[in-house]
User: Fold this.
Amino acid sequence: MRPVAGFDFASNDYLGLAGSTLVRRLTKAALERGISPGSGAARLLRGNHHSFSALEYHAARHFGSGSSLFFGSGYAANLAIFAALPAARDLVLHDALIHASALDGMRLGAAETRNFRHNDVQSARDTLQNWRAGGGKGQIWLAVESLYSMDGDFAPLADLATLATEESAFLIVDEAHATGIWGPEGRGLAAPFAHLENVVTLHTCGKALGLQGALVCADPVLVDLLVNRARSFIYSTAPSPLLAEVLRDVLTHLENDPSRRIDLLSRVARARGLARDIGIPPSRSQILPVILPGDAACLAVAARLQGLGFDVCAIRSPTVPKGAERLRLSLTLNPDDAALVAVFAALQETTQ
Assistant:
């Protein structure tokens, strides 16, 4: 593993909160209120601190769902969703590029799984109908991400929500890279549908929110099922109550002060123009992939950029398909504008 060095064009700390004075101040204030750093037990034993219920109540209102449940990580949350909610006769129908943690949850679950072409609603519809034509009769769980972490592209959520309604399916939306940035007031791209009984959203807290953990937001009946069935919830020591308390304060801050989100969206627009200027296909999001096929070429360019002081990562198989190796340029508020301009100048020099 590489040591952390250079201007940050690799992390998911999009709003620059992870090491911020704000989070330090909120953490200090929570400690002074007597909030415990450790939980001491699983939540179904003695670890159910009041900070968890306060966060979950606040998060449900913030993200527009009926209820929510706090997990120690997005990985644990995806394991819970896909292993505990779909049943044996059901079908999990998922985008071909869905995150590895969701795939691992499906492997632990009892439902059948099929994928459809990335961001292709007609492919999803055809795959679903073929499953039913072959005798499938269970519940459909349609699983996607709202913003894909390696391609930086958005899912056609409105059309997917329509498909879910037409087919009486549940729609599961992983908002990991949208939370805090995209959608109404940064509440996620699935926010217009989050209140519906057939919608489950996952909001990770270790990316734009700058901390750690994840919130599954859903109808109270589904949240109760997770509490009673999800092994990654039942058999894990509860996360830090201090963390939950600070997360609630961060959500409150973002509700009252949109300046970080506005600054990031401005940076995304700025980067779009810089990318066009040097002939790199621009991204609509804060994630810009620069395709450099072949491990050797991709690693060499990444090494040259790192040597110039820019922390840019090479992404290789199996995270992306062979032949689609890439640099993943992540736009955060951590570098200043001069560093943003400089990294694109360095990209032009090293890739041409």
User: Anything to note?
Assistant: The mean pLDDT is 96. Residues 259-277 form the longest helix (19 residues). The CA atoms of residues 12 and 170 lie 28 Å apart. The two ends are 28 Å apart (CA to CA).
